[in-house]
Amino acid sequence: MSPHRTPDSSRRSDRSRRAIHEAALALVGEVGYARTTIEGIAARAGVGKQTIYRWWPSKAAVLLDAFLDMAARQAAEADASGGGGEGGIPDTGDLATDLKLVLRATVDELNDPATEAPTRALTAEGVVDPVLGAQFVESLLEPQLQLYVTRLRAGQESGEVRADVDPRVAVELLVAPLAHRWLLRTLPLTHAYADAVVDHALRGLSARG
Predict the structure, then answer these.
(1) Distance between CA atoms of 154 and 109, rounded to whole angstroms?
(2) How far apart (Å, rounded) are the C-alpha atoms in residues 15 and 21?
(3) Does 1 reside within a domain?
(4) What CATH number does the domain containing 190 carry?
(5) Are residues 157 and 204 in the same domain?
(6) End position of a domain, from candidates 62, 83, 104
(7) What is the distance between the alpha carbons of residues 169 and 8, in angstroms, rounded to a whole number?
(8) What are the entry keywords (predicted)?
(9) 8 Å CB contact between 76 and 83
(10) CB proximity list for 116: less than 8 A, separation 6 or greater
(11) Interior CA angle at 59 toward 144 and 109, to 5°?
């Protein structure tokens, strides 16, 4: 007879967490944030709602954790493939090319039907919930912006960016226009627009002879 094996509770917990994350993202995309409930997430994930409340205080917290998990997995995949993406901004020696590559990927992510509704919901909830908003900025947004800061500092060292430029301020010249157009839905968010943002921003950041 094979020996009795004690169930691996950590693996079971990981599976449950992943199921809850996927359920939360899917439901917000399908029915909207307002109509998404802890009960609905639990039913979709095949767990009891007390399981969710044991790990998270609210559906907003579930959604934020789902995004952090998704970002971590994307970074791991990018590192494994040797690419940039979420794991870092490539440094080919051509700052404009590198920034356009990453901003185009950002456009694709913001336009992705699978993540657009959850991203909008989390962004809006962070405005009315200062605690969640601070967690969103600290855990998700700021680490991604720091990747741009690192690449711009490398541009300063190579002479592509003026030495007197504040990289953290310069980042907002690149990402804020995309966020503005995406949030307000004023005009289509496209690769061509991302390229134009980079070109316009670098005219003000580049070193002049």
Answers:
(1) 25
(2) 10
(3) no
(4) 1.10.357.10
(5) yes
(6) 83
(7) 48
(8) DNA-binding, Transcription, Transcription regulation
(9) no
(10) 29, 110
(11) 35
**2 domain-assigned:** no
Number of neighbouring beta carbons within 10 Å of residue 80: 9
Block residue for tokens 């940039």:
84
Last residue of a domain, one of 30, 60, 83: 83
Question: Are 131 and 189 part of one and the same domain?
Answer: yes
Q: Please determine, for residue 4, whether its predicted confidence score (pLDDT) is greater than 60.
A: no
**8 Å CB contact between 104 and 191:** yes
Residues 110 and 33 in one domain: no
- The DSSP annotation for 140-162 comes to IIHHHHHHHHHHHHHHHHHTSB-
Domain coverage including residue 63: 8-83
Round to whole Å and give the CA distance between 103 and 90: 12
Confidence of residue 1 (pLDDT cuts 50, 70, 90): very low
Alpha helices in the chain (DSSP H): 9-31, 38-45, 49-55, 59-81, 95-111, 113-128, 130-136, 142-158, 167-184, 191-205
46 shares its domain with 128 = no
Same domain assignment for residues 149 and 97: yes
Mean pLDDT, the chain, whole residue set: 86
- Structure tokens, 59: 């559906």
